[in-house]
## 1
Amino acid sequence: MKRAVCLISGGMDSLVSATIAKREGYEIYCLTVDYKQKAKKEIESAKKVAKFLKAKEHLILNIDLSWTKSALTRREIKIPKKAKGIPPTYVPARNTILLSLAVAYAETIDAENIFIGINSIDYSGYPDCRDVFVKKFQELVDVSTKKTVEGKKIKIEAPLLYLSKAEIVKKGVELGVDFSITWSCYRNTKKPCGKCDSCRLREIAFKKAKIPDPLIE
Amino acid sequence: MKRAVCLISGGMDSLVSATIAKREGYEIYCLTVDYKQKAKKEIESAKKVAKFLKAKEHLILNIDLSWTKSALTRREIKIPKKAKGIPPTYVPARNTILLSLAVAYAETIDAENIFIGINSIDYSGYPDCRDVFVKKFQELVDVSTKKTVEGKKIKIEAPLLYLSKAEIVKKGVELGVDFSITWSCYRNTKKPCGKCDSCRLREIAFKKAKIPDPLIE
């Protein structure tokens, strides 16, 4: 059975992305990084997602990134209600760090595919969510691992890259995904704050898809 | 004062590489990753190196990579005396992980340069020590961070890339480097084992440079 490493954040995109892998017949190996983000609930959601996917394994790595300059990691940097350009919630090199760990995992378990839920359409302005990032990371992987240099492949799969957030919701529903187990809010409040960029993007997505958000209802 | 992030492993190459940065007038920010390698002594050496460099800061990150398939991390995989091709001491995606963390650090402290002591001449056969790796990582950085996308630079500096190991020794002596504080052996023995690939490469380097190794004498 072919194996896939699926990066799982606890949010809706990585759940849909990994569900696509599951439906394509991969054995699922989930990877989550607890980087001391403010929204600790993400980790609990990631565990539920791994369970939902019937993952063969769920590797949760503790990597303290609280020293990085980001509104998601530092108490003194506030999570803004609305931000222009690259917002303060950007975490330096986060997707590069996550994918490099996923590559190490893929090499270790001999997986040929890595699924990541990044999306370049309705995204938060993070440079490491764009298609050029995926392209350049793939080129890097092709020359830098034992596996790839010896002729095998490690392919970065970003099946949501060109979907709108509403299309992601629809895709998820179509695949029977349970969005109630996910957490998108940047805050660690009891209920999603509804004000941060991530909450707003999610709200618009469900509205456009004409589907109620089970986390809100 | 311009800042440089210097990846410090505790070995001789990263010490020489960082000393070059120091002599070029950078304020030094050291980054070391304790990834649960067998040779724990590396971390103690890295601390001595940071002190030798009078580093402004030494960030030591604990990232458990004991799950990766490598002779440097797993007890059941033996460190070979001599290996052909890409040896079992290769740690999956190690330099990609290290550099991605260095990029996050550089963005956080607003450093424009990252120094890494990799060397493509007398190296251990690791694919992520070659010049094509540095080239591709640079291309990735150029498109993936807030800093680079907003027009600033993060440049990967690998000043030892095209030097032989003997030339690195000579360069170090020329710069007044104290090699006695470094640790190259893959094992955590009291004295270097003298048998592993890393010990052998070091031995040959000092012999060719006609300089005694202070760690051996």
Note: Chain B touches chain A at residues 59, 61-65, 67-69, 86, 90-97, 100-101, 103-105, 107-108, 127-128, 130, 132-133, 136-137, 139-140, 142-146, 148-150 (CB under 8 Å).
## 2
Amino acid sequence: MNYSQLFIPTLREIPADAVIASHRLMFRAGLLRKLSNGLFAYLPLGFRSFKKVENIIREEMDAIGALEIKPTVIVPGELWKESGRWDLFGDSLLRLKNRLNNDFVVSPTAEEAFTAIVRDELSSYRQLPLTLYQINTKFRDEIRPRYGVMRGREFVMKDAYSYHADEASLDETYQAMGRAYRRIFKRCGLTVIPVKADSGAMGGSGSEEFMVESEIGDNTLILCKDCDYAANVEKASCAADYALPEPESADSIMSIENAKAAAANTPPYEKIDTPDVKTIDDLCAFLKTEPKNFIKTLIYRAVNVELDLSGAPGCSKLERSKPSKDAPFVYTEAFFAAAIRGDLDINEVKLASLLKAGEVSLTCDADVIRLTNAPVGFAGPIGLTEIPVIIDKSVSAMNDAVTGALEKDLHYRHAAYGRDFTSWMIEDIRTVKAGDRCSLCGGELYIKTGNELGHIFKLGNKYTRSMNVTYLDENGKSQIPVMGCYGVGVDRTLASVIEEHHDEAGIIWPASVAPFHIIIVPIKYAGEVKNSADKLASELTKAGFEVLLDDRDERPGVKFNDADLTGIPWRVVIGEKGIAQKKVEIKHRRDKENRMIDLNKAVIELVKNIRDELDQLKK
Amino acid sequence: MNYSQLFIPTLREIPADAVIASHRLMFRAGLLRKLSNGLFAYLPLGFRSFKKVENIIREEMDAIGALEIKPTVIVPGELWKESGRWDLFGDSLLRLKNRLNNDFVVSPTAEEAFTAIVRDELSSYRQLPLTLYQINTKFRDEIRPRYGVMRGREFVMKDAYSYHADEASLDETYQAMGRAYRRIFKRCGLTVIPVKADSGAMGGSGSEEFMVESEIGDNTLILCKDCDYAANVEKASCAADYALPEPESADSIMSIENAKAAAANTPPYEKIDTPDVKTIDDLCAFLKTEPKNFIKTLIYRAVNVELDLSGAPGCSKLERSKPSKDAPFVYTEAFFAAAIRGDLDINEVKLASLLKAGEVSLTCDADVIRLTNAPVGFAGPIGLTEIPVIIDKSVSAMNDAVTGALEKDLHYRHAAYGRDFTSWMIEDIRTVKAGDRCSLCGGELYIKTGNELGHIFKLGNKYTRSMNVTYLDENGKSQIPVMGCYGVGVDRTLASVIEEHHDEAGIIWPASVAPFHIIIVPIKYAGEVKNSADKLASELTKAGFEVLLDDRDERPGVKFNDADLTGIPWRVVIGEKGIAQKKVEIKHRRDKENRMIDLNKAVIELVKNIRDELDQLKK
């Protein structure tokens, strides 16, 4: 294809709002333009690469037997009401009404549409498993879209949904998806960090995120220096930094009996005056000790709690309701105490997940006073009966601790877990930090920020149950199938390729997603140079490669700059002097130096190199 | 691909709301399901064919140098306000607001988005011509969606937009598009009727519609039995059925001078009593004459008239306004008289187009009385000065006619055009009917109903002007480019293929858009039959064809019915008896009878036949 016939408006200047490399380069290289905040148009060069990413995803989905379908982008609101997400999804769901006043959503994801289709056709276990996917437009009404297509409002996502008779079948598809995702990113030339939702130590995982490292990533990742442990900080766990007797060391919670035994030499707990002490630091100074000897207790307010609280302390009068007809029963509001060792922090996401709550946050001072009968700063697990107490595993190993006494200016000392207090729940609710130790190998953990490119997820029967999907099993009994969902953002994957493959001068495309494989730059597109350039372009095209021929009447410097900026992997320069000797210059975009080769060997050389790279990416 | 691994929910029963073959068969053959009224999901088999249509369109667009881009589906309302269509488009435009209260539209077409992109990048004539296209989701908020994807709310359209420095360049692209469209439909196996907007007699056309015949078509087409004249009734013209002296016969309007001369022997016009006469039929009976001797005059109300009326009779006090900031000036309301020979009918679409009016309709009785000073039924062109009079060409040849006298129960006779009255405008505003004669060859015209699959259109500078697009010409002078737009509905094209290619038993796919080329039906998928079926499938796949292997444990009758219903072009049946003699049955879906051929010749035979068909479609 001739450069002059394409539409590649490259820019010298950097768009003012472009703070990351991919955003900057997609604009500068003429791949992308902005229609309005968060809405972008791919120009011809950008869309060529976009379609290549799309196609790699399609091939890998087809290879594992997923079937491509095309529901609509605008989906009936009724379906979202059935699943309950019409009310629960939040404001990033773009809801709209048509002229007949019917409700619709612009799909941000498509569990409802797929499940509605499957529901109408599914009758027998013989139809299962079934995996369907689409590569289609999505919309998320971001308040503050930024970083170009990395966080736009409209984007394209491959989303797949699988339906199964049992967990084993779901797991099989889930594992196949995990492998397909690894191949997709490998083929795009991306280094991804697969992050399991649960700690590896817990065994089988129900969710895995595929992250790329990014300075502007939304996700904080906890990684191990010594093994491949990787987790989102929201769910990361770490090794306990205290020893427990066997067999308890494995899950690092002390049993009540062992805890009592461990406290055998601890004096009975007693109340002490701690006047004017407001923080743990104050308390440390006052008692001349360290934070790790304190039990820190915080009061949380949780909203839309799905967990059954009928047996929880202080919760007998709480009532459950449904936010919408088909949504599950929830407690609109509930309060909890959470206790952790004083040198550690509570992870609110872990806490919310434990409670199956919509949101969890520290409650206001008035509620703290009402619930603990004391000002802020004196909460503690001993004698706290108004609300359920959740304590972190770390507290189970504390047999001589300081903690609030539920009275102003008073603390307890010599408090021991098991002997002086227990809890409603004891779980891992700790925020893992850099320097903590890996739960798998004991290695040092460190932190990276990452962007999520893909996500695979076992949904169980959340949607199939709320949307009444059933099939008859081998015994003719009606059953609800289990479901998985699997997404990859196409735009974000493309932008991430540029993030990982660029330099000062521009993009450096991997061959698999490059808009063209080769750019031919005639120094002056005329005479013998033109003839050779045309012939070479035609031969390379016949060999199955995409060739961009820079036929513009521009200075060589301009052409070289545009070639570097647009990042076409191989550049062939044809000049008058060289061609007189039947020689051309070739150079990979990565390389600093070019080399002269015989014109009649150029096709073989380029074809070999590009095939090698494509094969390498596919391995 | 094995049938059991696909998701092909065929149906015996016909969906209740499916009145046309494509709707019925897309559901029955498991290609399509409904999400809600006007919103459909393509299932795997349907989407395979859908992508083939899409790809044929893409190849033909690329072949003429159009460049594919991808703007968003949700487009900023601002752009539509700039073009004026935010206000003018009507209720089928789905307008919406996001959480920040910004206006958006779900694109029904994309002149604005494309023009906004081009505007920002266009600087020099050297960048022109430029043709960009997308194949992307569109939405039209139909009040009464029906006929399946033939008239759905969400659909996929290929829409291209071209930008040019001059009309000659626009015409070149327009012609290339016309040829590309013919190839697209040919390759899909469709018989289209290209319909020029203007009559061929008028020379170069600014718009061409590609129609398929359809019982449920929205369009009434006027076709010639003897030549390839084809026009939408809204714009069709026909030969005059009266003789005029040279050179006037060519455009069939009599000059005033010649009209006066032709009335030389007509007595002076005179008022006659016509008591109790209400209709033309009454008048005919009363005067013992025929409708073709009357001048029928009707009073119309037109809204949003763009045509300059400053010099028109009775319009000097009309004021112009802008419905929105960037829209053109219009007269909100204006009244007109339209006169035509009594045996003919006025075409309101032609009239509206003449006046550049948003809408034209017969006005109410009160307005007729106010404007003609007479009750309904006595309007006529003589003495009518309150409003502009538009007369049809046919009236110019009338030199002894009867017409209303603008008084109750009175008519004129011996009225002659040119001598007794003229008009503000004389044009073709006649509705062409079956039996009229072709303006090109004199052949008999007949009527078909058709559905529009594609449309190519010269837009001029409508959008480039309102959206302020300019470039510098060779002399450094700022110019506004001219523009063309070109659309094809992908869903509608696919459905039309089925309309044209089906029988009682199901679809009969052309090879180019078939979801699979070959279906292999083993009578029982086991033993030697299975081995042969697998081997044949693998060889045909290697040869580059798509093979569906019916591996289901179903009765042969069920398999044959599904094969017929889904319409795969070639069927290969493998049974135990045949395979013992190394023979298989092959049959094209079109044929009634199958034939036995040697197993080892099956691949060659099928490959040859399919290649031949594909080549034929491409010719």
Note: Residues 199-204 of chain A have pLDDT under 50 and may be disordered.
## 3
Amino acid sequence: MFFHKQELQYKASPAKPDVLQARRMQELLGGQYGEITVAMQYMFQGWNIHVPGKYRDMIFGIGAEEVGHVEMLAVMIAQLLEKAPVEQAEDAISRDPAVAAVIGGMDVQHAIVAGAGARPVDSMGNPWSGSYVTASGNLLADFHANAAAEMQGRVQATRVFHATDDKGVRDLLSFMIARDTMHQNQWLAAAAELQAEGHEELPVPSNFPQRLEDSSVAHQYQNFSDGQQAREGSWASGPAPDGKGQFSYTDGPQDHGVVPLPPPTTPDPRFYGTTGKPNLVEKVVGTVKDAL
Amino acid sequence: MFFHKQELQYKASPAKPDVLQARRMQELLGGQYGEITVAMQYMFQGWNIHVPGKYRDMIFGIGAEEVGHVEMLAVMIAQLLEKAPVEQAEDAISRDPAVAAVIGGMDVQHAIVAGAGARPVDSMGNPWSGSYVTASGNLLADFHANAAAEMQGRVQATRVFHATDDKGVRDLLSFMIARDTMHQNQWLAAAAELQAEGHEELPVPSNFPQRLEDSSVAHQYQNFSDGQQAREGSWASGPAPDGKGQFSYTDGPQDHGVVPLPPPTTPDPRFYGTTGKPNLVEKVVGTVKDAL
Amino acid sequence: MFFHKQELQYKASPAKPDVLQARRMQELLGGQYGEITVAMQYMFQGWNIHVPGKYRDMIFGIGAEEVGHVEMLAVMIAQLLEKAPVEQAEDAISRDPAVAAVIGGMDVQHAIVAGAGARPVDSMGNPWSGSYVTASGNLLADFHANAAAEMQGRVQATRVFHATDDKGVRDLLSFMIARDTMHQNQWLAAAAELQAEGHEELPVPSNFPQRLEDSSVAHQYQNFSDGQQAREGSWASGPAPDGKGQFSYTDGPQDHGVVPLPPPTTPDPRFYGTTGKPNLVEKVVGTVKDAL
Amino acid sequence: MFFHKQELQYKASPAKPDVLQARRMQELLGGQYGEITVAMQYMFQGWNIHVPGKYRDMIFGIGAEEVGHVEMLAVMIAQLLEKAPVEQAEDAISRDPAVAAVIGGMDVQHAIVAGAGARPVDSMGNPWSGSYVTASGNLLADFHANAAAEMQGRVQATRVFHATDDKGVRDLLSFMIARDTMHQNQWLAAAAELQAEGHEELPVPSNFPQRLEDSSVAHQYQNFSDGQQAREGSWASGPAPDGKGQFSYTDGPQDHGVVPLPPPTTPDPRFYGTTGKPNLVEKVVGTVKDAL
Amino acid sequence: MFFHKQELQYKASPAKPDVLQARRMQELLGGQYGEITVAMQYMFQGWNIHVPGKYRDMIFGIGAEEVGHVEMLAVMIAQLLEKAPVEQAEDAISRDPAVAAVIGGMDVQHAIVAGAGARPVDSMGNPWSGSYVTASGNLLADFHANAAAEMQGRVQATRVFHATDDKGVRDLLSFMIARDTMHQNQWLAAAAELQAEGHEELPVPSNFPQRLEDSSVAHQYQNFSDGQQAREGSWASGPAPDGKGQFSYTDGPQDHGVVPLPPPTTPDPRFYGTTGKPNLVEKVVGTVKDAL
Amino acid sequence: MFFHKQELQYKASPAKPDVLQARRMQELLGGQYGEITVAMQYMFQGWNIHVPGKYRDMIFGIGAEEVGHVEMLAVMIAQLLEKAPVEQAEDAISRDPAVAAVIGGMDVQHAIVAGAGARPVDSMGNPWSGSYVTASGNLLADFHANAAAEMQGRVQATRVFHATDDKGVRDLLSFMIARDTMHQNQWLAAAAELQAEGHEELPVPSNFPQRLEDSSVAHQYQNFSDGQQAREGSWASGPAPDGKGQFSYTDGPQDHGVVPLPPPTTPDPRFYGTTGKPNLVEKVVGTVKDAL
């Protein structure tokens, strides 16, 4: 169960309205790596988890926090939109480039659809999508995805931070960027702990029997480009991070197969695909088959 | 530039057709973590990169390989579909549960739309989406995303592996799972190397000035759930992975703010939102404003 | 069957071109509650209806009107775009904020994709989606959805009305807002009539046997927030609108269940999920299972 | 802020696993009118609200409950999936139609992507979309949308109820259907109260100045179909629900306009659209313009 | 304006219900090349057209017909769904593979969402999308797109035809396939006429000044694959269809450029991208810039 | 397999950065008819093809070229974004309309998400979708779709060409427009050759037995609009392009059917749809059925 408390985790009031910044904040709220994504992602991981204990507790502990982050952003956006223009005052536009920027750059649906409120969309107006969520049931894979999501989220938040000098907005972002720092660290620590406790190793999933994969290419860099510097990297020689092999380098892949020739039996003519024979033949076959 | 060679990186021929397995393979081809995703992701990272040298070479080297993986899967799927049923033969269905499973479980568009061919969709028929791609310009954030993507991809491939006992399909998957092993290792090695060379540190992005974030909460676990075991984890005490702080634990967040009261100036009445006053007042105001 | 008549239900000519207003009008044409939505929604309700007579006639009568509304908006938008800028004349931009607003704010695809024409998208460029449509087969549920859609649509149209002072655009919107008034009334009247004639009651669907739902919570407000004023509302005491119970209030839900512990039988190890046991055990199990 | 409590609002354990029912339950979790939709919808309405007091408290009180409903469904689905088939055991399929139904009808991503867990998608695998959410800032419009959503949701839940005879699943649905009953009533009561207190009237938005809409058609049924029974309805004569006019009926719309002829000034030739003149003329014009 | 007549263009009644065929018919109704697509496509082309006369009349003449085709399919689908199973009768499934096929293969939302009715989706449940529509303002380009759409549509309809032997369904498809034949011919004829009358030539758009394109490669086949037979085609030598050049063949493209090296001025450090320099340098720069 | 060469097919360097043009170029990269679409479309056609030889070679030859076009556009866009504004410098905006245009018109995610890099989206920010791809297995249908795609693509590129006077951008577009010219010609030539060699005829698919379609309407123009000029076109009389019939014209369709009345057996009451009988009857029936 979830309970709501009518306080925010951190104050979320801008110094003054700014509809352009409101639009940018939508990325942090409803973008691919926005707060809805991490909230949903952690909650689905928690609901699908098969084990009790500290990992499960931690997932719910952070999941609920993230819903509150959505709230802080939404509350902030609504205030940034307080002066969202209702009309396109041509005089004002003609006189003032700042007005022109607002008229040109605002999220049009902030005004028409939400009446100066936040929306579950990103900064370009794409609705948030369930396809952003990652919850595989394999905790090590998922914790890495979580760490990666927090990194992308923090990168985006720092960019949005610099886009404004509003004291209130920067203050909130200063708090949220710090939480991203924490969560980035948190998932990296949890991923390390999972491995230390023997729940999972690299490569993920580690309990797929090794004999079932083609070990001859499991640690081999195959270069499909004409650049020559890739062989200088630590991924081209030396021990691999999973501790299960030595990296090697091969310049160009070994040929293993060919595009198969068309199979001896042609596809069913009733698919009406092109099969390389003048269609007269097929027409007869088709007509006959159909008549049966 | 990209060049095509009419050979496959690995042979891709099933022992026999299997339209249900064809559908499952679509997840590896066109799903959130399928081969189209990683191909596109690495290529966009390469096109947006600002630095020459080994990282850039490596990104293109693997990016081109992944396009070839899309090809192997597509070629395999087309062959698995060779006996895709054109008709719903009621007699056959009534007699044979295996036919019933095929009629019930096949990707309907494999037959109707593609004429027994592969499609750029996942196993539930969702078209591949550009929103799956991550390319932020920050290589450490992106390499972590890449490693996470390879982990999810490998987990999915192992599940699809067990769904069939077709020798040809398992053979291809055995090769592809090994490549996932390599690529998982590759990105982890590259991420480590980026840090070792001082390009980037944790937390990402590391050159966001630390004084601009609220350091009081940057390493603090805040528990928003009623579980008590989360404090036992390595994320609740001890040094954080970024080496820049000690984890701490707090049971319940400190209150920092409140949901702001409605601002003294009400929104423009021409948004026709609800403002808490009987609308008679607004109607007068609106009419007057409008008349001006 | 549908027939087209080369007249519009109402004149649709702007006083002068305005590419920014063209973009706003797209919301009314192709947005979540735009005219395509209601046209499609009413038509699908009509096609799926199981009963002849006045409701069915009425649904088709309004459905066809709404296709004509799409037409009026499209014709208007094409004219508003007549002066859509082909080039980004830097001189003009530098001199004139109004030009800057246009360059910044226009729907880029209006120019590049449609060559100064309307598109089946909303004001942020999201393509219209079949997922906006509601047609459940239960007419009372659907008529309420229709009334709600007309309300949202009218709210949006009034906002778009104020965004321009173009006489021609306002004239068309004045007509369309009046039609929204009619249709809002129409669906509310139809919903009332359905109930008066005994086809359906509240709660919808009314013929789900009452004994099959948990009547102990069917009229009980459960407060999951810490606000205390919700108990003052008419939804917290007194008779409920469905006439089948008295509202009651409870501050905090009664606990009925717990998150289930992991089931005694662990999931199939071949899902490679995390199961709380060091994976060595599983690896053995998996290898053995696989070998069989 | 949101807090999580590790109990469920109601017990959510099936009598036995059933992957087909798991798929159906996804509609109630992640469909257009599933629990994610209402949770998000109410929360966004709450975050965008401009007024303190009972409406706002109520919105948060129910919003948090709905997040808990997502949880109950997710937990239930994960248990229903416990025996999700990892392999396509041909022998078993060939012998048993029930196995064939499962192989054919399961959500393929439940196995491959989630490892036997719930996902933020509907029963056909479409990811949940932010475009399902309605939050306009006009509470009367939004409360009607909420009531309509609860009706659709309840209709769907009753259908899913009959699809199974699992005691545990029916038990949970019996609880959730009752909550839908409550919430349907709740929003209807709240909508009535908003009007009774004078915040808003019909038609929504009521404070759009009536003189700005074309009152001649604001209560007129216009029949665009050839059915003749629509005039028998209460929407074709008598007083309208908004109390502001009498319904009237007209058989066929009055012609108000025509599709405008092509404007005297042709579009910019650099759009390369078709303009009705042989393109030689344009080519010359274009070349000249371009040369300047 | 559009008017509805309560007759169908052709009878649409199946011999008996068939929920699997209902799902297949959804592709023809709501797929990428289904009837909603062509209806919308032709209507948008008509609304955006700049010229009066026969082309415009024809576009509206066929556009309205296509809306009627959506209707015929929807009416057919609703009847095919008449026996859609409400419950998952385990006994019946266990005994009868045909029931298993239905339970496994039906569109789950046909039952849960539409209550045995048609939906604006394709055969895999993807909602119809406005992104399927093509209307560029250039009639020759659009007529080619229309002809191509009718071809895809007819191919799909013939495949769906063979999937059933229901006399009623085949009868309707027999009619619709014939209309596809007509419309395929119609658009090809119209495209030829546009050229014959000098409105447009190949390549489209023909009035783009030829001197503005790089004529050295405008008729040159460049082979980016290692196949050698492509040079045998009529696209590799001889006159091109546009009558404006001779095809030539080149085995491998000429190198024209290189991937640009990183520009001398690095991107703004406040994007926190990776720039190839250890981040210490940037951190100083960033801190200084930020401090200013 | 695909190989990458670190050169571009053509130089792709702008004279100077221009974030607005960067956004327009996204349409050519990631739009419905952008380079990702044609690259994917040709590759899927190649992977699904059933015949070896010149067509297959040609498809791969052009498919690989198109991936390189994506690359050229991405590289160009990244350079156009080099000066993408990090901050919203209010002073600069207030002074300079050109800055206002940039702030208003840029793709917000170019800055926040990609850190001044290209993205797999169109000019309005919609992510590229697999639903743009056409690959039916019928080569004549597909080659027509390819020609149509190249026409739309060339129309769009010419529009984007005029939007800038940047020498470098125009230079690249001049090259790409010429390649569009080639590819438009190429697919038209290939379509003609397929027919000349007897693989396929019009109407597509030509081997669908003609006796299975309703030949009475296969070449008949049916006018569903009130325009009278459509009968003047070549599609209303004379020989049809498929050489299999004479066009005819009929003013208004012949009535073939009617909307079916509700079937004698009502739908299962457990769908809780509206069936035209007061629900009391159903309620009894439902209760009884349920009790059994």
Note: Chain B touches chain C at residues 155, 158-159, 162, 270-272, 290 (CB under 8 Å).
